[in-house]
Amino acid sequence: MIASMTKYSFVLLNGQQEDLLEKLQEIGLVDITRSTKPIDETSQKLAGEVELLSGLIQGLNNAVIPEGVTPEYIDGDIVRLAGGQIMRYSEDMVEIKALEKEVHHLKAWGQFDKAQIQALEEAGVHLHFHVVSKKQYKPEWSEQYALTVISEGKNTIRLVVVGDEDPLPGEVPAPEHSVQEKEQELAQQRAHFAKTLGRIASAKDRIPELEALRQKALEKLDLYLAGVSAVPAAEDTIVTLVGYAPTECDDQVTQALDATGVLYIKEEAKVEDNPPISFRNNWFVRQFETLTDMYGRPAYDGFDPTPFISFFFMLFFAFCMGDCGYGLILVAVGLLLGKSEGFKSLAPLVTILGAATVVVGFLFHTFFSIDIAQWKIFEPIHGIFLPAKIAGYDGTMVLALVVGVIHICLAMCVKTYQETKNKGIMGALGTWGWTLLIVGGIAVGALFLAGVLDKEITKWIVIVLGVVSALGIFIFNDPDRNKLANVGVGLWNTYNTATGLLGDVLSYLRLYALGLAGSMLGMAFNNIGTMVLGDGSNYFLWVPFLLIVIIGHTLNVAMCALGAFVHPLRLNFLEFFKNSGYEAAGRNYHPLSK
């Protein structure tokens, strides 16, 4: 849910804002309205410092230090040290690769003495070096010219021709250095690189110092941007600042502000103030806030879609994976990520999605594309498995459409509630009409099919729903507009809703299609492995069988996980957001902090 915000308006003598901002940074709760990007020369310089430190940290992390390298500690400024060593590391790497390539090229020409070649040239004996493809080379050349083949590669032949005239193709300059010279140069460069590696290793140990410097630079930049956002007044003698903090933190913020003696006005934030958006959700829902931020945070008078995304994204992901075994793999991956500092934040989400896949995959009675409903151990609970056919259609396909209808109906109910809250009941009559017609109609139809309502009662409920919905859709969709104009708008909305709603519902078939594709591909790998294994009497065939099954299912898990992330995200961002009227119009809550 969206946390309510309190607005703080500060009035200060010009020059006092720095002390106040430093105090607010210590509190770590007040979001001062400010720019998020550099706006002048000073802020650009600070941003450049942050960028430099980030680049140094990334460069040190990317540097590969072989085992056994002893760090050579160098005292001094870590920024200059890291910058210089990263530059030398890159230069040495480039130089070594170039020398290795040149040595490889010279070895193809064999050992030679450049002084002797020069002496022959001075004596009038001209040597011509050639590199020709094997298709170009003709054996009769050896009879026509004073020719010697030096070496043969995979596709090329290197040869030398003696003579004044040389009409053969592929002539190249004579090598300028011998192999011995370049190998000696390569050895010297590698020795220099070994020293550089020792210094880089020492610099890598001091990465925490760079991270601390970067954090200080970020705080300084944030503080400066907040300071320049102050609005001067009364001929620059006073300045004003505006900030926001969660209402639940009012006591903590006001206590700290009262201790400073600063003049401030505290009031409830309004929509027109465009306060920052902070979410207040439980542990489970918080894991999915990243997905909401991918689309954008809501307006202050909007609604937090994260609780809806959390459940339905998890369900859709599990639906697309649809395999109990794959879910166990994801749970294991999530637990491993929890032990990695770089990916620890993703671990709970991966584990949750894996656990949901285990449950849904079990209900689909699929374990690594094997139908576990055929196993005798599960015969007592066979009734909880999803039936293969529902009303004569594929059970998974029917379930995907049912889930889609529920998802869209929930979105329409959310939209109705939001519009009623923001516009009042009279301003939301058009939305009420569509919700009663579609959601109410589906609910009545489901109750009738379940035998809860008889035919006569159902008929009268449908008539009442139709009449009430028509009034809201065609007559009262906008109380301030002419009724004839409302009818025209209602007809146009009817066309758009009828065509769009059908497409929205059919979009959920992708859940069935992705699950089916993954299951069939996994089954194909199982069948290939079984064909290789045969009856299992040859123990040596178990090795290729295991390789085929393990590699095949690993690839399948990766592909299924990609589709299971993208398509459920699309169903939430397009189908649900469109039918719920969600708009990403808010900005993130970003308090000044240390």
Quickly describe the structure.
Helices cover 60% and strands 10% of the residues. The protein is of the alpha+beta class.
Write up what this structure looks like.
The protein has 594 residues and is α+β, with helices and mostly antiparallel strands. The protein has five domains: 1-33 and 229-278, 2-Layer Sandwich (Alpha-Beta Plaits); 35-103 and 184-223, no CATH class; 113-174, no CATH class; 283-391 and 509-577, no CATH class; 397-507, no CATH class. The protein has helices spanning 17-27, 41-62, 78-107, 114-122, 141-144, 179-204, 207-228, 250-260, 283-286, 289-295, 306-321, 324-337, 347-363, 395-427, 429-449, 455-475, 483-507, 509-533, 542-580; strands at 5-13, 31-32, 127-133, 146-152, 156-162, 171-172, 231-233, 238-246, 263-268, 366-367, 370-371, 389-390, 393-394. Strands 1, 2, 7, 8 and 9 form a five-stranded antiparallel beta sheet that branches. A four-stranded antiparallel beta sheet has the order 4-5-3-6. A hairpin with a 2-residue loop joins strand 10 and strand 11 (370-371). Helix 11 (306-321) runs parallel beside helix 18 and helix 14 packs antiparallel against helix 18 (509-533). The radius of gyration is 36 Å and the shape is extended.
